[in-house]
Design goal:
The protein is an alpha/beta fold. It contains eight helices and ten strands. The structure holds adenosine-5'-diphosphate and magnesium ion (MG).
Length: about 240
C-alpha cells in the first residue's frame, strides 16, 4: 500500500450547477495520472479541490494522511502537500526569479535562507535556468516563466504535483522545453496529476489515463490501451478531435 492520494466519491456543486459527482481516484507514490476531457468538464475544478482551493460538497480526499471532507473547516490543510502549476505563471513581477522562488519557503515554511537559496539554484540548474536567477519575469520567455513556476512548486517539497494545462498559453516552440521538464520529473519518480491537451505528451508521460466527461470518469486505463483501443464512443470522438 503505497497510496499517497485517495479521492472517494467527491462531488462539487456551485449553487445550481453540478460540476462533477462521485469522482473516485487513487494515486500511488510515483505514479503519473493524466486527465483529459472536453473544455468545461471540470478538470481544473477537480485539481483545485485536490489542492484545497475549492471546498467539496460530498466525499473525502486523503492526501498523505491528511483528510478533507465536505465538513472540513480548513480545506487549505492539504495545500502544502500538493504543489500546483497553472496555465498562467503568476510570478511576482517586482521580484527576481530567485526571490520568487525563495518567497514561500522563507515565509510559509520558515526555512533556512542559505539552504533555500542553495536548493533554488540547484533546481534552476536542473531546468536549465541558472543563468536567469537574477532576471525579472518580464525578461523571460513564456516557456522560461513556466519552468520557474514548476521550480516554485517543487521547492515546497509537495507530495503530489498538480499541473493544469501548463503549456496551453505557450507559443508552440516553447511547449517542448516545458514538457521535457515534466518528463524528467516523471522519470525521477515524482507523483503527478496532470491535465493536458497535449496527447502525445500524455501518452509518453502517463502511467494511467483518465477521461472525464459530463462530470464523471467515462474511461480510464493504461495509455496504450486508452489511445489505441478506446472503449466508449465518447472517448473515441474526443480523441478524434486531436490530430496527433
Ligand atoms: P475545465 O478545466 O475542464 O475546462 P472547469 O473546472 O474550469 O473545467 O469548469 C467546470 C465547470 O464549472 C464549468 O461549467 C464552469 O463554468 C463551472 N465553474 C467553474 N468555476 C465556477 C465558479 N466559481 N462558479 C460557478 N461555476 C463555476
Ligand atoms: Mg481547465
Amino acid at each position: 500500500m503505497d497510496e499517497i492520494l485517495r479521492v472517494e466519491n467527491i462531488s462539487k456543486r456551485y449553487e445550481d450547477i453540478t460540476v462533477f459527482e462521485n469522482l473516485n481516484l487513487s494515486v500511488k507514490k510515483g505514479e503519473v495520472v493524466v486527465i483529459v476531457g472536453p473544455s468545461g468538464c471540470g478538470k481544473s475544478t477537480f485539481l483545485r479541490c485536490l489542492n484545497g482551493l475549492e471546498d467539496i460538497q460530498d466525499g473525502q480526499i486523503t492526501l498523505d494522511g491528511q483528510v478533507v471532507d465536505a465538513s472540513s473547516k480548513n480545506i487549505g490543510k492539504i495545500r502544502e502537500k500538493a504543489g500546483m502549476v497553472f496555465q498562467s505563471y503568476d510570478l511576482f513581477p517586482h521580484l527576481t526569479v530567485l526571490q520568487n522562488l525563495m518567497l514561500a519557503p522563507l515565509k510559509v515554511k520558515k526555512s533556512n535562507k542559505k539552504e533555500v537559496e542553495k536548493e533554488a539554484l540547484a533546481l534552476l540548474d536542473k531546468v536549465g535556468l541558472l543563468l536567469k536567477k537574477d532576471s525579472f519575469p518580464r525578461q523571460l520567455s513564456g516557456g522560461q516563466k513556466q519552468r520557474v513556476a514548476i521550480v516554485r512548486a517543487l521547492i515546497m517539497h509537495p507530495e503530489v504535483l498538480l499541473l493544469d494545462e501548463i503549456t496551453a498559453a505557450l507559443d508552440p516552440e516553447m511547449v517542448r522545453e516545458v514538457l521535457d521538464v515534466v518528463l524528467s520529473l516523471a522519470k525521477e519518480g515524482r507523483t503527478m496529476v496532470i491535465v493536458t491537451h497535449e496527447m502525445q505528451f500524455a501518452r509518453a508521460v502517463a502511467d494511467r489515463m483518465i477521461f472525464i466527461d459530463g462530470g464523471r470518469i467515462v474511461e480510464e486505463g493504461a495509455p496504450d490501451e486508452f489511445f489505441d483501443n478506446p472503449k466508449t464512443d465518447r472517448l473515441k470522438q474526443f480523441l478524434q478531435t486531436f490530430s496527433y
